[in-house]
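Hey, I'm writing a tutorial for new members on how sequence and structure tokens pair up, and I'd like a real worked example in the thread rather than a made-up one. If someone can provide the structure for the chain below, I'll link this post from the tutorial.
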Amino acid sequence: MLHFRQKAYLFKFKLSFSLLCLFLLGLCITLGVWQLHRYNYKKTLLTIYQKRVTETPKEFKEILAAKDLQFQSVKVQGRYLASLTFLIQNRFYHDQPGFEVLTPLEIPGDEKLLLVDRGWIKEPDDARLSVTKKLEVKGHIKLLNEYQFILGDNILQPEKTPHVAQRIDMREFSQVTHRVFYPFILRLNANEMNGFVREWTIVTVPPARHMVYAVQWFLLGLVLLIAYGCFCCEEV
């Protein structure tokens, strides 16, 4: 006959170890909650985008009074200032490096220029970039609320045109061109002329991935709690 000895365990509180585990647990919970916030934010953002891009374009002057300009579908008449075109480098399409083409649109009777994102291009082509006739363009508003860290100067050679930059910075663009810009851009619709590749990215990280990250952080916190209990219990 086999006999099993019943083991007894005693919980011993260890101050330093407990404080460390408490800090790590708080960090896991904070990061998990933050990922949930990112999930809700991006899900709402995609919903707004899908709704607004299908709406009938409104006159540009009309939407300026709107409280929320993000993704507003608009139409505006003006003339491209091709000589003030900006090329944002290190933009990728199907893993192929290229440039994002942004050309200012001069609107009659308006001192401010509207920067139009005409899409992605592999190599700069002056003939394709130049558009001088008056036209009507349609697209949606994109607010510039994303900070991008860069190394060195943003505009690489300010005296050379078209200007090549690492990121969109309206303040620097105004300094180089001596013109005033609206604090947002207009992304040209895919069916509009005088554009390039336009498969717009709304969010770089999809909402579902943020949910996965949140679950991972919460599970890590749970594992930490279990490990804390195991390390603080000693057999007697």
